[in-house]
Here is the input.
Amino acid sequence: MTATLFDPVQLGDIQLANRVVMAPMTRSRAGPGDAPTALNVEYYRQRASAGLIVSEGVQPSANGKGYCRTPGLHTEAQVAGWKAVTDAVHAEGGRIVAQIMHCGRVGSHLNKDPGAETVAPSAVRAKGQIYTDAAGMVDLDEPRALRLDEIPGVIGEYRHATQCALGAGFDGVELHCTSGYLPAQFLSTGTNQRTDAYGGSLHNRLRFVLEVLEAMTAVAGSGRVGMRICPGNPFNDLHDDDPHETFAALLDAVSPMRLAYLHVIRSPRRSLDSFALAREHFRGPLIVNDSFDRASADRVLDAGEAAAVSFGRSYIGNPDLVRRLREGLPLADFDLATLYTPGPKGYTDYPAA
Ligand SMILES: Cc1cc2nc3c(=O)[nH]c(=O)nc-3n(C[C@H](O)[C@H](O)[C@H](O)COP(=O)(O)O)c2cc1C
Here is the structure.
């Protein structure tokens, strides 16, 4: 018999009660010191019937923060805040991993702590603007290129964040490796103009991501580390000359690490089938994402093409999405205006069916 969304599944060392995954979503509602609060506990608790929650992107360091009010995972207060979240999810029988997101060049100093910097593989500014509480929309910062001798320290931030994640009771960690953030900046020709061991050849462009994964798996064990990709994603002014070649080589290199899962988003490039690429080059469970509904999710599981399916936008207005999908109940819409605003409105006030 083939699997459905409601059957359990094992992703590495993480046992899921069902195959409905809540996709990571930045909601910009962290409290003072970028620490989660009781409001965030309630939001995740409401959604704990997902087989797995992937947290919103969390910065592994002050430099890694790009957007306003995003939570971190590098101070004691942040670990304590997240511990309350993971305890609440576990009390409901759920599982939750932390998505480690270093924004690199995508950010504004106005969203960062005093003294924190916007750093990237190369000093190439992304075209575009970003929201700040202090000044509204502003141009993205001009990043400072990381010196070669600083890179081990940045990899160390991912190692430390992984240690913090385990201390906070997360079931694992997911490396955010898309959407134009730091790992994607190292992978891509447009943003990586380095001439040292971390740039130039394809082999060198992969080095940062592989060393980050080695650091994360050394701490958590490979069965508790996942990675999220979207080959060909131009978000945040990202350009790569040949994303198919880059991601095929990356996945060939990552496969022997035996990660818990690969979380793969449909490519916006029509000519690039990122699910097929993942199946060909990654040996391990796949979570697939983007614009799935119950019928298309069942099809992909039925065909054995993925282990689980993640849902983003549907989770905003439907905290009980698993039940609604199972019982064929209607799905509620969400309010765009309150996606990233502080407070409970548009966050914890969407009722269960
Ligand atoms: C409000 C919002 C915030 C998001 N934040 C993140 C994020 O922090 N990390 C990430 O990898 N993807 C992020 N995404 C992308 C989603 O995880 C997902 O890939 C996207 O919504 C497509 O899936 P869907 O069609 O099920 O919504 C975000 C999406 C939305 C709508």
In short: The longest strand covers residues 52-58. The chain is about 30% helix and 15% strand.
